[in-house]
Amino acid sequence: MREVYVAGIGITSFSRLEYPLVEIAAYPGLMALRDAGLKKVDHLYVANMGGGRINGQTGLASAVVDHMSLTPAGAETIENGPASGASAIKQGYMAIASGMHDVVMVIGAERMREANPLEATDFVATLTHPQAEYIYGVTLPALAGMFTRLYMEKYGVTARHLAMVAVKNHKNAMDNFYAHLHEDITIEGILDSPEASTNNPYVADPLRFYDVCPVSDGGACLILATAEVMKKINKPMIRLAGIGQATDTHCVHERKDPTELLAVREAARQSFKMAGVKPSDVSVAELHDAFTILEIAESEEVGFFKKGEGHLALERGETQIGGKIPINPSGGLKAKGHPVGATGVGQAHEIVLQLRGEAGKRQVKNAKVGFTCNFGGFGNNVVCLTFIKE
Amino acid sequence: MELNIYAYKCKRCGELHYPYKTICKKCGENDHNEFEIVPLPKNGKLLTFTTLYTLPSDYEVVTLALGIVELEDGNRITGQLDIKNPKIGMKVNGKVEVVRKDLYKKHLGMIFYKA
Q1: Residue A287 included in any domain
Q2: According to the model, what pLDDT value does residue A65 have?
Q3: Mutation target among B58, B78, B100 for the A interface, most CBs of A within 10 A
Q4: Residues of A198-208 as b/e, b for ≥16 C-beta within 10 angstroms?
């Protein structure tokens, strides 16, 4: 198999975007082509979850490849729920590693805010089991709420720990121009003050408003290429070194211990093994904090901390920029935003910036190994990526 | 007639599946005639729960309580709760009632009450 490198990157703001889904996909693609100094690609993968349902746009990749005048390059749309982004990167990796293509463009794009918030929540809730979960009114926040209650009971995680994740990620997002939320929140404002219950009402008890990611539009792009192409373009050598993917039961109630995220554990293990690194080698990570509890739980499952101790590491400041293992320097899904199909590519975009040393004020010093965890459904399909700076 | 939620029991190894699966998760049996349809019990204890304040479409209520219940045979089910102050570990019993109405259809499912 051939080695695969990141030649170029691009991103849009994650927020409400008032232009068509095809353009949300095309602009980061254009930025990435400029970044890499390339004009053509051999193949295009576009990750998207809701185009058909929310935007009335099916066959997105075919529309994008034409919009960017990249025809006759091959193009495919990849849908794997909220893990579509990392899944598309995996497809790009396989296309290059196998020798089939030399330059592949991977885009993630989503335009969820075209729908009203009720429809957007309902659209994401269709990820749940249709007969055993969805018909009861189960949504992703509902599953996360039930998960959080168990986690609190079992490991002593409190509302304060959850708020600490939100405060940290909002603070990081203040230095990220492309982040959805530029709100420097405080524990006092969302938990302790008399106004806290108005500022931060329950969404899915015990999860509150500031424990849940925003509904975002946005796009991101990575151009992947062979070592040979990289020699010609003079960009930092960031290698996509490890990929892991695993699944778990569709219904959360079928899991032996519903506080365990076995797909995260397995996908991370595979990704580290393929890259030949250990969790302790990671210098910066982007985890899928669609709900604050998930950053804590994933930081344990991927192996940064022991099970049940993620919230203690958070208390000690180990996950802040400057800490032992900075998590979500971009602001994470919590504050950078969560355009579902684009999220996995957005996570990889941040890791490449960090490894290149181009992350500005939120730069993690001497970042050598970067890791992303892209979490689909409620942990039933997880893709983890490991990047290494050479 | 009493309404039930049904599980799918593998005739070969006895493993119970809820919801239905095409291949037995324990022994790999894959002939659908080899699965027996059996009603799930209705008594159990509450494993975890949440109160949802932002509801999906089709609901005309302010909040919705949802939970996962461990049934007396050890199987689990997700359902709605009609319980004032739910607590982890409390005993509950379920009834099959309307859990969602959309334009065309009433959907039946398990609603749990304090036992």
Answers
A1: no
A2: 98
A3: B78
A4: ebbebbbbbbb
